[in-house]
């Protein structure tokens, strides 16, 4: 039990620390604004430096695709559109339960706007219990709990692509079933309504970078295959990051603050990261700067991420921008085939902004996908109760939770 009286004694020190940090952050923001303005005048030179010395940099710096002073007002989404989203949750394996297995639950959401069609809100559970599912990751030194999270990422992408394919087919149903005359005209011209596919979090799967190649080959290819399906259906994919802690865009300014003629970190500043002389505004994040520079409904320049793991993504390089969605500045990521197609990019950003507005600060489709996916305490108990029933019917004896788990669930003190 938490002792609030003892905890209250520490609150004063915490508040003083946060006050000092807030003052320091204001100074860093002023400096970052000045550096951004200075870098704008010789942006092309900095990009050339980045391209030349990118493999020698000790940090990940995104490349601006548009001028640094770009501020674009996002357009409103059309009334008729569709949004798809998936999110996942899980029940982790435990040796203290009646059986060593894990469950992945993927929430599915399809929202049709102004189309007189029912939404889809459900989840797809899948239980993993075979030895090849539970122990295959041990050969690479990866714990089963971690591997479960990686498999969940694959399931989310795969289910999203399946939703997109099904939605594309459904959008070409007989127009006699559609109430909206405008949508009838759209479908008669063989043009389905604008559709957006959304996931919660980054499209850059950083966790893949340290994995052995054999392990990566079981995770990344299915994800990229799902993205290819979205690309073929011309349904833009968006990764929505709320409260992003990325500093990729600010790191581009470190090319400007570098005190040396060439940004050769490997030679000039070996082993230095946050203490390097070019790092003059750490631990400032991108969102803090763009919150000052953007008005509600505006987006920042488009950037191309330089994360090393993207070398394995093939044609699916990841681009991003920051958008002031009213409640916050969010990082919005899209794959290259969206960023390089003006029509798809406009659809992706406008529908994302509309989703945030409909969700009162967070995309409603993502919130609903989370609600469908989340496994609560009662769900966990019912899952293992159902499993116990099946084991008893199969004639298994001596099943049950460990004494440790049973005692944790009920105190006698």
Present the secondary structure layout.
Layout: H1 4-40, H2 43-53, E1 63-64, E2 72-73, E3 81-91, E4 102-113, E5 120-128, H3 131-134, H4 144-170, H5 181-188, E6 195-200, H6 213-216, H7 220-232, E7 237-241, H8 248-252, H9 254-257, H10 265-268, H11 286-293, E8 298-299, E9 303-304, E10 318-324, E11 329-335, H12 336-339, H13 342-358, H14 364-373, H15 377-393, H16 403-408
Parallel strand pairs: 3-6, 6-7
Antiparallel strand pairs: 1-9, 2-8, 3-4, 4-5, 7-11, 9-10, 10-11
Helix pairs in contact: 4-7
Give average pLDDT, whole number: 89
Report how far the terminal alpha carbons are from each other: 13 Å
Rg, Å, rounded? 25 Å
Q: The biggest beta sheet, please?
A: 9 strands, mixed
Structural class call reads alpha+beta
Task: Give, in spatial order, the strands making up the sheet with the most strands.
Answer: 1-9-10-11-7-6-3-4-5
């Amino acid at each position: 039990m938490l002792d609030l009286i003892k905890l209250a004694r520490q609150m004063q020190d915490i508040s003083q620390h946060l006050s000092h940090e807030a003052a320091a952050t204001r100074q860093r923001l002023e400096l970052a604004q000045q550096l951004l303005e200075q870098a704008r005048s010789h942006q092309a030179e900095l990009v050339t430096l980045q391209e030349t010395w990118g493999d020698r940099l000790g940090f990940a710096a995104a490349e601006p695709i548009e001028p640094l002073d770009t501020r674009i007002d996002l357009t409103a989404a059309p009334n008729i559109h569709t949004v798809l989203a998936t999110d996942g949750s899980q029940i982790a394996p435990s040796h203290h339960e009646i059986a060593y297995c894990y469950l992945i639950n993927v929430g599915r959401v399809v929202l049709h706007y102004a189309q007189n069609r029912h939404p889809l809100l459900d989840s797809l559970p899948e239980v993993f219990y075979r030895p090849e599912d539970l122990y295959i990751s041990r050969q690479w030194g990866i714990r089963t709990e971690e591997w479960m999270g990686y498999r969940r990422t694959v399931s989310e992408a795969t289910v999203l692509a399946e939703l997109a394919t099904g939605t594309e087919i459904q959008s070409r149903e007989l127009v006699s079933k559609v109430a909206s005359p405008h949508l009838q005209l759209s479908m008669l011209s063989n043009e389905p309504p604008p559709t957006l596919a959304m996931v919660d979090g980054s499209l850059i799967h950083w966790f893949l970078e340290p994995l052995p190649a054999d392990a990566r080959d079981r995770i990344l290819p299915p994800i990229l295959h799902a993205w290819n399906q979205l690309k073929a259906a011309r349904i833009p994919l968006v990764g929505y990051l709320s409260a992003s802690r990325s500093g990729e865009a600010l790191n581009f300014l470190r090319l400007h603050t570098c005190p040396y003629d060439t940004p050769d970190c490997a030679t000039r500043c070996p082993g230095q990261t946050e203490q390097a002389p070019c790092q003059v505004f750490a631990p400032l994040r991108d969102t803090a700067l763009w919150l000052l520079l953007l008005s509600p409904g505006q987006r920042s320049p488009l950037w191309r991420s330089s994360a090393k793991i993207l070398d394995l993504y093939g044609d699916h390089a990841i681009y991003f921008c920051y958008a002031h969605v009213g409640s916050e500045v969010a990082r919005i990521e899209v794959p290259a085939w969206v960023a390089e197609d003006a029509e798809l990019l406009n659809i992706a950003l406008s529908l994302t902004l509309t989703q945030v507005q409909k969700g009162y600060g967070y995309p409603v489709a993502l919130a609903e996908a989370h609600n469908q996916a989340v496994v609560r305490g009662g769900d966990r108990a019912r899952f293992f109760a159902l499993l116990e029933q099946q084991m008893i019917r199969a004639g298994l004896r001596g099943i049950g939770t460990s004494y440790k788990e049973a005692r944790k669930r009920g105190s006698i003190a």
